Amino acid sequence: MSIEVANLSFSYGDRLILKHVSFSAQKNQLLSILGANGVGKSTLFRCMLGLQKGYSGQIRLHGKNLNTMSIMDIAKSVAYIPQSHYPSFNYSVFDMVLMGTTHQVSVISRPGKKQLQLVEQALERLGISHLKKRGYTQISGGERQLVLMARALVQKAKILILDEPTANLDYGNQIRVLNQMKSLAQEGYTIIQSTHNPDQTFLFSDTVMAMKDGEITAWGQPGDIFTEELIRNLYAAEVTINSLYDDRVRVCIPKCAI
Amino acid sequence: MKQFNRNTLIILSLGIILILTIIVSFWIGRYPIYTNELMGILFSKLIPIEPFWAAKIETVLFNVRLPRIALACLVGCCLSAAGAAYQGVFQNPMAAPDILGASAGAAFGAALAILHYSSSFMITISAFGFSLLTVALVYLISKKAKGKNILALILSGIMISSLFSAGTSFIKLIADPNDQLPAITYWLMGSLNGAKISEVTFVLIPMALGLIPLLLLRWRMNVLTMGDDEARTMGVNSNQIRLIVIICATLVTAASVSVSGMIGWVGLVIPHLTRKLVGNNFNHLMPATMLFGAIFLLLVDDVSRNLFTTEIPLGILTAFIGAPFFIYLITRTEEIY
Q1: Any residues with CB less than 8 A from the CB of B6 and at least 6 apart, and which?
Q2: CB neighbour burial string for A6-39, b if at least 16 within 10 angstroms, e if fewer
Q3: How far apart are CA B236 and CA B230, in angstroms?
Q4: Contact B234/B223 with Cβ under 8 angstroms?
Q5: Tell me: the pLDDT tens digits for B100-137?
Q6: What is the DSSP string of B15-42?
Q7: Is A88 in contact with B93 (Cβ distance < 8 A)?
Q8: B183 and B114 Cβ atoms separated by less than 8 Å
Q9: CA-to-CA distance for B51 and A34, rounded, in angstroms?
């Protein structure tokens, strides 16, 4: 069991954000979390990354209680890939990725040869070596997302948490990013992403978790839980789901469009 | 690895330029001290050398020129390092060393000491003490504030700064307009006039205590610029590192302004000029900005003491030279990667 969330509840003041959430994810799994804005996906991620304290229940990383782990130890097991953003200061793509190796060197030293090599490998692995000398803020959104993925790879954590990785990306970049996620899962990573795109969820992930009002409303393989009922329940939208290629693909189409 | 070599070369060049600037700075002044005399006097302290220089030159060297050059280099180095550090840990390119009230506190402390007719050494100590006290106050208040702690720090910095500025104004109001008021006003303009070797030894310890950790922690500062949450997910204890950096940057700022008075611009402009040279990576930025700051303030101080028969306060010159140069650079050059 790579990561295990057991009976997790969290509230801001008297507003309950997460209610008794329990699930687990393991090696080779690509878990997609579906749910409307504000259902508690981000809070769940913050708890899983050790950024949010004061929850009840337990989160275990490789069997160890997250609460007892140091920031450094958590970083060795879980890497976070935020939505592509603009930091205050522009760094070269190479330096940006190199930051992921920080926990491998002592507080008063800087990444060395070994870390530089890791960066070269990660850039190669994601096919963005040609960008390494460019400024991070000068490349496209999709490229930035791949850079952040490379940064997570050099962190050498086996659990990757991605916050809506395909939001704000053009169509081609969405496919490239999802493809990389899929192949990373096949290589042995545990990948957990939040997303708003049901079609992609069906195509690329092996497990889907649907959340509403801080609770898990559905869990399972995409083929089992992907229904018109689920979409209506999650997003209050009427859709028809069409099955293609012997049910290897399912496509949602809004009813109002047909 | 071409990037690495290029930046290392720039840092080395800055080091060489600094040494040359120091040598030239000894030449200029009413009593020039040439390099052979300088070497002779310095080595005569270690090994017996028959003096080939006038006795007056030795006095000028130890009582006037050397402390002044040393302070110009140290203050320039510290203000730029503190500016770069604050910009990094506050993720704010407009941050300057006075952001947490270090300068306003020092000004108040100095004015208070002048009001009590203290010696120049007591003025330095009072300025240093009040500077640290002010930042400590700002930090404690921000801890009480609800919400985002960076914003709370900056806001309480602004508030406490204005409080101490008001205090300084009040001291000016009640000060004797014949001698105290001009002394306060002149101190506030910033100057290294009358620098003494005792001042150099006084500020050397806090400066070293601040500068060394800033150099050592420079890679972690890069990660802090990504924001607290991201830094933590990469294994960096952002609150802890930020606190250490703030303490170190405050220490060197307080030490600097306590001997130099208000010198604006250096802490904001020099880090940005250095960013144009070597990029934003603190690995190169921190050493480069320290050297650049030392060169800049030494040059400006040379102008300050030699351009006219009466000195022009440094604070005025840094703005006159710094601002147009900065405007030229931000309009002409592109970011380097």
Answers
A1: none
A2: eebebeeeeeebbeebebebeeebbbbbbbeeeb
A3: 9
A4: yes
A5: 999 999 999 999 999 998 888 899 999 999 999 999 99
A6: HHHHHHHHHHHHH-SSS---HHHHHHHH
A7: yes
A8: yes
A9: 85
| Residue A49 distance to chain B (closest CA, Å) | 7
The answer on pLDDT for A24 being more than 60 is yes
Ordered domains of chain A (ranges, CATH): 3-222 (3.40.50.300)
Query: Closest partner residue to A90 among B92, B237, B335, by Cβ?
Result: B335
For B79, list phi and psi in degrees, rounded to 5.
-65, -40
Structure confidence at residue B47 (pLDDT): 86
User: Domain containing B305: what range?
Assistant: 64-332
Q: Supply the CATH number for residue B173's domain.
A: 1.10.3470.10
Q: How many contacts does A have with B, using Cβ atoms within 8 A?
A: 95
B131: nearest Cα among B168, B95, B94, B77? B168
The region of weakest confidence among A9-23, A119-133, B137-151, B213-227 is B137-151
Residue B1 is predicted with a pLDDT of: 47
Residue B44 reports pLDDT greater than 80 = yes
A5/A8 Cα distance (integer angstroms): 6
Judged by a CB distance cut-off of 8 A, whether residue B92 touches chain A is yes
| B57 located within any domain | no
Give yes or no for a contact between A91 and B281, defined as CB atoms under 8 angstroms apart: yes
pLDDT at position A66 over 50: yes
Q: Is residue B48 part of a domain?
A: no
What are the φ/ψ torsions at residue B94 (nearest 5 degrees)?
Answer: -95, 5
- pLDDT for residue A93 is more than 50: yes
Contact A8, A18 (CB under 8 A): yes
Q: Which residue of A has its CA nearest to B285?
A: A91
Q: Does residue B250 contact residue B98 with C-beta atoms inside 8 Å?
A: no
> Is B47 domain-assigned?
no
> For testing the chain A interface, which of B1, B3, B7, B219 should be mutated: the one with the most A CBs within 10 Å?
B219
Give the chain B residue whose CA is nearest to the CA of A157: B234
Above pLDDT 70, what percent of chain B?
A: 97
Residue of B218, B225, B337 lying closest to A134 (CB–CB)? B337
Average of per-residue pLDDT values in chain B: 91
What is the sign of the dihedral through the CA atoms of B43, B49, B52 and B57?
A: positive
Does residue B49 form part of some domain? no
Q: How many CB atoms lie within 10 A of CB A86?
A: 9
Residue with tokens 């337990």: A58
Average pLDDT over residues A58-76: 94
How many structural domains are present in chain B? 1
